[in-house]
Design goal:
- The chain is α+β, with helices and mostly antiparallel strands.
- The protein folds into four domains: 94 residues, no CATH class; 159 residues, no CATH class; 115 residues, no CATH class; 46 residues, no CATH class.
- The protein is built from 14 helices and 16 strands.
- The strands form three sheets. It has a nine-stranded antiparallel β-sheet, covered by helices on one side. A five-stranded antiparallel β-sheet has the order 1-2-3-7-6, with no helix packed on it. The protein has a two-stranded antiparallel sheet with strand order 15-16.
- Helix 6 runs parallel beside helix 13.
- It is globular.
């Protein structure tokens, strides 16, 4: 447990217990704030009477601020976990209340920090350091220590994200010299800086961190480790704290699945991750971003059938193709709008709302959706033969796997072994990984080289004694 000093750094792996006060309806109440990697809890208590009331109903609270001697704490996404009121004197209407909340996150900041004007988010993550790898620039920096010829460490990368901001992976360098300990040296730490086009609210900053985690979970193979999140507002510095244990089950440590690979001291032979694909991910439209999020959620499902169904559903969404009976959809829409009054008049015995609903459905009925198996087969056929020839499943097997998906979904009678379900899941997840990389413009050739490194890929391969 730790108590906060004025300039203390806040680490997600540490726990903190703070005595706080908060104000509501002009009155102050005592509280205790507990920050742990498992949860954020706020306990508030006090006496109430007709002239001393509060408005601490969590249904009406988006943010709640409380204070210690040195800090302001801004909590978001609160909900009750305990609510007790004890009457002390009915005549005087004197009562004592005790509330306990849990929160999704808390800003630990100076008291004049504006929680809705966050200018920078800096994420410190060992996972990103491993992703960057040991570079030539790092080697040159350390090799010249200490020396007047020591080079500066330039940023690892910088990329603009249209209508979103800029992202930079940079270094903080440190040095020490001590006669007492008879030591001297230098070091560096890698961090990821996000500078938004417009200042962020606390909620928007959390959403960016979530996107950061989803991105690295897919390309690194597991939920990234984050040690601290530093934020700024104007000239003020603070930290964003959220529960880091149990938020998303970390099945394994990140495996450096698809490393950045730029300017490595010892090249790995793997393809480089395209920097432009970082910008592509953080500017995905809502539909595609949601698919990335679901891909992460589905891979953590405990029931294998659900994991298979989820991955298949996403592959289906990525490969979906439609055709139109009438190609000029704008002309169709304008025509239906023009005939609406006439149709209502002609079908005068029907309710006007039903006629409008029918005309609206005609626009949807103009679309013909291709068979799911056919759409997935089209994706499969774009893959190189030298890759798919090693797989258990060929293009002709896709309709049968699609039917198995339908049988599970609709609770039709079916029978299959666990090993079959595992290999189907590996197959569908391989197609999903390819689709996810395609969505952020990773070259297909690079994806194909990384694919065999993904979790469970060996289950997709033919047995060694197979022809």
């Amino acid at each position: 447990m730790g108590r906060l000093n004025r300039d203390e750094e806040i680490f997600l792996s540490e726990s903190y217990e703070i005595t706080v006060k908060l104000q509501s309806r002009g009155h102050f109440f005592a509280g205790h704030l507990s920050l742990t990697p498992q949860r954020i809890s706020l306990y508030i208590s006090g006496d109430l009477h007709d002239d001393r009331v509060h408005d601490l109903d969590p249904n009406q609270i988006e943010q709640l601020e409380c204070y210690s001697l040195n800090h302001k704490f801004v909590l978001c996404d609160l909900h009750f976990t305990n609510n007790q009121i004890q009457w002390l004197d009915h005549t005087r209407r004197l009562r004592h209340f005790e509330y306990t909340y849990q929160a999704a996150a808390v800003l630990v900041v100076p008291q004049s920090f504006d929680a809705n004007e966050i200018n920078e988010v800096n994420i410190y993550s060992p996972t990103v350091s491993d992703w960057v790898g040991v570079t030539q620039a790092q080697h040159e920096y350390l090799a010249h220590s200490p020396s007047e010829l020591q080079p500066d460490l330039a940023s690892v990368l910088y990329t603009e994200m249209p209508n979103r901001g800029a992202m930079e992976i940079a270094y903080i360098t440190t040095s020490h010299f001590s006669q007492t300990t008879r030591s001297a040296g230098i070091g560096f730490e890698i961090y990821t800086n996000f500078t938004p086009t417009e200042p962020l609210t606390q909620r928007a900053a959390l959403e960016y961190i979530e996107e950061f985690r989803f991105f690295f979970e897919i390309i690194e193979g597991a939920d990234p480790e984050i040690t601290k999140v530093h934020v700024t507002s104007g000239e003020l510095d603070g930290y964003l704290y959220y529960p880091s244990v149990g938020v998303r089950h970390r099945q394994s440590a990140p495996r450096n699945l698809f490393p950045l690979g730029h300017e490595l001291l010892h090249p790995s032979g793997l393809p480089k991750f395209p920097i432009e694909s970082i910008s592509a991910f953080f500017t995905l439209d809502k539909i595609l971003l949601e698919r990335w999020k679901k891909a992460v959620r589905y891979r953590h499902l405990g029931v294998l059938e659900d994991r298979f169904l989820g991955a298949f559903r996403l592959v289906e969404a990525f490969t979906l193709q439609k055709a139109c009976y009438i190609q000029d959809e704008d002309l169709l829409a304008s025509t239906l709008t023009r005939i609406e009054r006439l149709a209502i008049k002609l079908f005068s015995t029907e309710k006007p709302a039903n006629v409008r609903s029918f005309l609206g459905r005609m626009r949807k009925l103009n679309h013909q959706r291709y068979n799911t198996a056919t759409c997935v087969q089209k994706l499969y056929k774009t893959l190189p033969r030298e890759l798919t020839s090693t797989w258990r499943y060929q293009v002709s097997d896709i309709p049968d796997i699609s039917q198995k998906r339908n049988d599970i979904t609709h609770a039709n009678p079916y029978f299959f072994t666990d090993s079959e379900l595992l290999s189907w899941t590996a197959f569908v997840e391989a197609l999903l990984f390819i689709s996810l990389m395609d969505s952020i413009a990773v070259p297909r050739a690079s994806t194909i080289k990384i694919l065999p490194r993904t979790d469970g890929y060996s289950l997709l391969l033919k047995p060694r004694n197979s022809d």
